[in-house]
Amino acid sequence: MDYDAFLTLLIAEMENQDPTDPMDASEYVAQFAAFANVEQTMQIGVKLDALLTSSALAQADAVIGHVVTSADGELSGTVVSLTIASGGEIVAKLASGEELVLGAGVTIS
Length: 109
What we know:
Elements: H1 3-15, H2 25-63, E1 67-69, E2 76-84, E3 90-94, E4 99-102, E5 107-108
Antiparallel strand pairs: 1-2, 1-5, 2-3, 3-4
Helix pairs in contact: 1-2
């Protein structure tokens, strides 16, 4: 369940509770604590994405113009540009027009 769905559900529950038998206060507090936890988790995710993008940009600057070789040694070439995917994955475009994902085992020289 995402943040918006949780909030919608909590508001609907509060609006539709029986006034002669209101929600137990401890249950109410527990739901608000869960709501706060969901919100904090989402904020951590946003900050982690920003950190990954920043790290990828720092790495990208250091790779352009260098020769990269794939882990299996089958693909090698000079990096002319880079693309950073939404997950932080860096894809190098080589002078030959081929692309190589910069990851484990890739050699940069």
